[in-house]
Amino acid sequence: MLLIGSEQEKFFTTFNRYTANVTGARTGDPATSGLNMITSTQQLVGGVPDPTDQAYYVIAVVLAAGNQAHTLTATPTGSFQAVDDCGNFTLTSAGQKDRSGTALNCW
Question: How far apart are CA 76 and CA 78, in angstroms?
């Protein structure tokens, strides 16, 4: 999530807005440009997710304030990670970190 957040800041520096398009290719048009990243924690092999590696989280982006703010949410996936007491992790464009679960020391 921190890597995606960092790429969002680079995008903002270029286009004066954030994007919800994490996986799309980078272009010169802010309406269609993406971050050219994956939205899960699977390892990459040859630039694509490794089908033998189970993702632990799936990451989503929600934009707000006319694309001037964003919240990243990492949702646990798979039988092992789904029972984690931390629940969903969130990271905002303002740097606020949170979790939805009951555990205290997640970040």
Answer: 7
Residue 105 within a domain: no
Read off the tokens for 32: 């269609």
In a domain, 106, yes or no: no
Establish if 49 belongs to a structural domain.
yes
CA-to-CA distance for 57 and 74, rounded, in angstroms? 6
Host domain of residue 16: 2-98
Q: How far apart are CA 27 and CA 20, in angstroms?
A: 14
Summarised one tens digit per residue, pLDDT across range 30-81 is 999 999 887 766 655 666 666 666 678 888 999 999 999 999 999 888 777 7
